[in-house]
């Protein structure tokens, strides 16, 4: 339990460009990149392992991000959009990924990047999904390759959320 105590004592320093909603819970060994937004009722609990969230990510309302003690950290790349009420647990998410509303991503899952995960999908433990793919179902499978437009739309969505968070940051500073 000493490891847990050390992680809980870590002080969280956020870049000034990060928005965190007042009722979000951020705890433990957590690193968050520039221009990221953490929305309402989000819980990010890095109490027993680390969590890293890249730049220009958006963690939408009701999401839970956690880890597995001494086994699975959670790592998100840049330009990752996590839809409302998603659950991420001990997984690795590459750059430019959109996780649909209510998606569940379990221990040891790896998304290589440029992925779209359909709403409500369940990605079972230990699965690896290749770049440029649409992933859907329960258990989730690769449905098809993504078009160049779909891949650029994923990044555009993340950029749009960086604009939304600017509105909220400006409200906090008035």
Please give the alpha-carbon distance between the first and last residues.
42 Å
Number of helices: 2
Please name the CATH architecture: 3 Solenoid
Percentage of helical residues? Answer: 10-25%
Series of secondary-structure elements, N-terminal to C-terminal: HEEEEEEEEEEEEEEEEEEH
InterPro entries: LbH_gamma_CA-like (IPR047324), Transf_Hexapept/Carb_Anhydrase (IPR050484), Trimer_LpxA-like_sf (IPR011004)
Protein name: Gamma carbonic anhydrase family protein
General description of the model:
This protein is α/β, with parallel strands linked by helices and 174 residues long. The chain has one domain (2-172): UDP N-Acetylglucosamine Acyltransferase, domain 1. The chain is 19% helix and 37% strand. The chain is built from 2 helices and 18 strands. The strands form 2 sheets. Strands 2, 4, 6, 7, 9, 10, 12, 13, 15 and 16 form a 10-stranded parallel sheet that branches. Strands 1-3-5-8-11-14-17-18 form an 8-stranded mixed sheet. Strand 17 (133-137) and strand 18 form a beta hairpin. The longest helix is centred in the last third of the chain and has 25 residues, at 148-172. The protein is globular, with a radius of gyration of 15 Å. The N and C termini lie far apart (42 Å). InterPro entries: LbH_gamma_CA-like, Transf_Hexapept/Carb_Anhydrase, Trimer_LpxA-like_sf.
Kindly summarize this structure in a few lines:
Helix content is 19%, strand content 37%. It is built from 2 helices and 18 strands.
How are the SSEs ordered, and which strands pair?
Layout: H1 2-9, E1 19-20, E2 25-32, E3 37-38, E4 43-53, E5 58-59, E6 64-66, E7 74-76, E8 80-82, E9 87-89, E10 92-93, E11 97-99, E12 104-105, E13 110-111, E14 115-117, E15 122-123, E16 128-129, E17 133-137, E18 140-145, H2 148-172
Parallel strand pairs: 1-3, 2-4, 3-5, 4-6, 4-7, 5-8, 6-9, 7-10, 8-11, 9-12, 10-13, 11-14, 12-15, 13-16, 14-17
Antiparallel strand pairs: 17-18
InterPro entries: LbH_gamma_CA-like, Transf_Hexapept/Carb_Anhydrase, Trimer_LpxA-like_sf
Protein name: Gamma carbonic anhydrase family protein
